[in-house]
């Protein structure tokens, strides 16, 4: 993905964690934004990437409030260890500069809830449950594509490419990558 970019990457990571993804994929990227709620992890991330904006904050409220809007992000990376949709919604609903091409990469753990028959309890999936029923397990990649298309349209984006797969021992983690264009 980074090799296909025509402009230098500007990354926004919604959940920084211990910075392993950054070390493996983004270490050479000079500009970016990362959010982390844990004070110790946020301090580590600030030392790890001194040229990035590092926020010790919940990404959802911070994004809605405009955090990171000083940069035109062209890679949105979400790794929430669960539901990504509130963070995706916050990014696309917030007032910020918009790149002409935006890559979105997601490590989505929501399929665990879906496998347990709990899709109806997840606020972000209520529309999909009404449309397709509570058993979204087999069609979750299609649901992701549809939801991402809806959320991105709020900011004037349309879906150009989408690919994904399920992984993990019980295939409850979903990875997907999308290219959005304006």
Instruction: Provide the β-strand percentage band.
Output: 15-25%
When the domains are counted, the total is 2
Helicity range: 25-40%
Number of helices: 7
What order do the strands of the largest sheet run in, or round the barrel if closed? 3-2-1-4-5-7-6
Write a short abstract of this structure.
By secondary structure, the chain is an alpha/beta fold. It contains seven helices and seven strands; from the N terminus they run E-H-E-H-E-H-E-H-E-H-H-H-E-E.
Can you walk through the features of this model?
It is a single chain. This protein is of the alpha/beta class and 182 residues long. It folds into two domains: 7-73, no CATH class; 87-182, no CATH class. The protein has helices at 20-26, 39-48, 59-64, 85-93, 111-115, 126-132, 140-153, and strands spanning 10-13, 31-36, 53-56, 75-78, 101-108, 158-167, 173-181. A seven-stranded mixed beta sheet has the order 3-2-1-4-5-7-6, with helices on both faces. Helix 4 (85-93) packs parallel to helix 7 (140-153). It is globular.
How are the elements arranged and paired?
Blueprint: E1 10-13, H1 20-26, E2 31-36, H2 39-48, E3 53-56, H3 59-64, E4 75-78, H4 85-93, E5 101-108, H5 111-115, H6 126-132, H7 140-153, E6 158-167, E7 173-181
Parallel strand pairs: 1-2, 1-4, 2-3, 4-5
Antiparallel strand pairs: 5-7, 6-7
What are the key terms here?
globular, alpha/beta, 182 residues, single chain, 7 helices, 2 domains
